[in-house]
Structure formats: C-alpha cells, structure tokens
Amino acid sequence: xxxxxxxxxxxxxxxxxxxxxxxxxxxxxxxxxxxxxxxxxxxxxxxxxxxxxxxxxxxxxxxxxxxxx
Length: 69
Description:
By secondary structure, the protein is α+β, with helices and mostly antiparallel strands. Helices cover 41% and strands 17% of the residues. The radius of gyration is 12 Å and the shape is globular. The relative contact order is 0.20.
C-alpha cells in the first residue's frame, strides 16, 4: 500500500494508542481497519493489495482487492 505511512499517521493522530511492532503496510492497514472499519480503511488505501479478513465476532469472511486487481 503506497500510502501506508499516511494511514499510520492518521491512526496515530486519532489517539487509538496502537503499539506498533514494525513498519509494514500490513500492520498499518490492520490498524486502520480496526479503527475505521474495513470499507472506510480500504477507501483510504492507495496501492496494490488483496486480502481475506475473518471477523470472528460476526462470523463473516470479507475478501477485498485493489481497484485494478
């Protein structure tokens, strides 16, 4: 995700208190999904990605890919 540093900064500014473990785009995206929800986080993501996300609480599998994929 090309703008993962921008996503990370936005998550940090929200006061979410994420304890970052690394510097990957995956970690930034997961924190954004947790904070804003899947749809909003993906709308703000720029770049190449494909993912499967399991929501154990709702028992729902979400599949997503970038706009060109």
